[in-house]
């Protein structure tokens, strides 16, 4: 597997944009298989980015069909749609205006209390 990984990354090094998806096939029952994504990597102009899940984004996109669904609004102001993710924890639960205000008050995520280690 490591040799295949090195081969994939060396092929990407020559391209300006590429995506690598590492996945495995899992057998569900006698006749059915399921693909399970292990990780995704993007290469843009020679720079490698590892894609990560954003927690809370699925409820925001799933709720667009019905305006009565909860889960799509900011948990702070409860009026605007959530559109901002907190790093490094990747929680997405608030709007950009509330995120700006919260950033002035604290470096910690109100959901998990993980602080921003990049500052």
From TrEMBL:
Enzyme Commission code: 2.3.2.27
Protein's name in the database: RING-type E3 ubiquitin transferase
GO aspect biological process, one term: protein ubiquitination
UniProt key word rRNA processing: no
Catalytic activity: S-ubiquitinyl-[E2 ubiquitin-conjugating enzyme]-L-cysteine + [acceptor protein]-L-lysine = [E2 ubiquitin-conjugating enzyme]-L-cysteine + N(6)-ubiquitinyl-[acceptor protein]-L-lysine
Family: Belongs to the RING-type zinc finger family. LOG2 subfamily.
Gene Ontology molecular function: ubiquitin protein ligase activity; zinc ion binding
Native species: Actinidia chinensis var. chinensis
Pfam families reported in the protein's UniProt record: RNF157-like_N, zf-C3HC4_3
